[in-house]
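Service request form, structural biology core

Requester: graduate student, group of Dr. S.
Request type: structure prediction, single chain
Budget code: on file
Notes: please return the result as structure tokens.

Sequence provided:
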Amino acid sequence: MDRGMRNYRAGLLAVSALLAGTASLRAPAQQIVPPPATEPAAPATPASPEAPPVVIRVQTIAESRWEGVLEAFSLQEGLRLRPAGSAVRSIAAADVVRIKTGSTPVTPGAGHWIVRLAGGDVLYGRPVDSTAEGLRLETAELGVLDLSLDVLCGLHAPVPAAAAGADRLSAFERASYGREDAVLMANGDVLRGFVTAVSGQHVVIESGTEARQVPLGLVVAVRLAAGEPVTPTGLYGVAFLAQGGRVTLTEMTWAADHVQARLRAGPVVRFPAGELLSLEVYGGRWEWLARRAPTSFQHTPMLGLDFGWAANRNVLGGLLRVAGQDYEHGLGVHSRCRLVYDLGGGFTVFTTSFGMDDDSGPLADVAVLVLIDGQPRFEQSQVRVGKLHGPLRLDVTGARRLELLVDFGDHGDIQDRFDWIEPALVR
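Core staff response, request fulfilled:
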């Protein structure tokens, strides 16, 4: 969406909110005023005496796994961890890969919509009001937020996969509407145009000279032509929340009882630490290979059926799952294939695990080869379904080229759906 269109939308939103009497000068309950841009969002706050200790599990760039009580964490000052029976250990934030807590996932309450933001962030909540900027959302985990429509990709009511209308919703989300917004109605109709307001009562969409106010109860989903997300600079975190939310956080501090940070979507939030399932750190010394585009990919089928490759999915588009375990990061391919990456001499370590995806069949069997600057550095034959191999860790200091080859096994390419699990590069 270009700057003129964003300004036009902002003007329409302001007029719409004023005419509807929904604009408010009162800040949302859980949203706080951000500090100056030159300062962190807030200093780490010591835990209150009543706050129970938070036991966390930490993965670092050295593949070390630490477990202990969280003393404090911030993207500026790093992690302070107290392992059982040991002194407090300090770890630089740039050396942290992920932190997991013992919080338990829960199902969002009835009536929570799924809200998708530019850049892949997801929130669960109830639309409350339209505002001069966009949408006021009462979220399941972060309290009440004001979000600009320019950062919204869309929202939809929860529709179980087996429910009537699930296929219609899936087709709506896959369809291309160009630069137009779109609204999917409960009767299957799709309205196209320009969404100027979303509230807890209705959606307003303009098409030509006509503006339609559609009751929210008749709406299944809304898609918006959101602008490109702004990638944070420096260190930032991606938080996975207990009720299903996923948000990108900057200027983050975490004490035993709360987390405070700025969302990539704009607002500064403070929420209970118990809502945090895990945190991944980006912009440091660890880089997931799936975030890097290969310089070349080649698939050589045995019988003429071509396959591509998939980032963070198996080759058929499903979840990455090996030996009964799901994984967030990885590459899905099919034999025989070769992925090539340009390292530019800027990394010290390549690490990965691998295995046949659980979606493969009993005849799946491949051979694996990793080459660094054209030289074989690792080989493994008879890779079959049901086992995760690795992690493999190779020195790539000064190397410029990484090749990942998956070759035919004993049964040609039959059922050979293979996953590189959590491949990463370390600076």
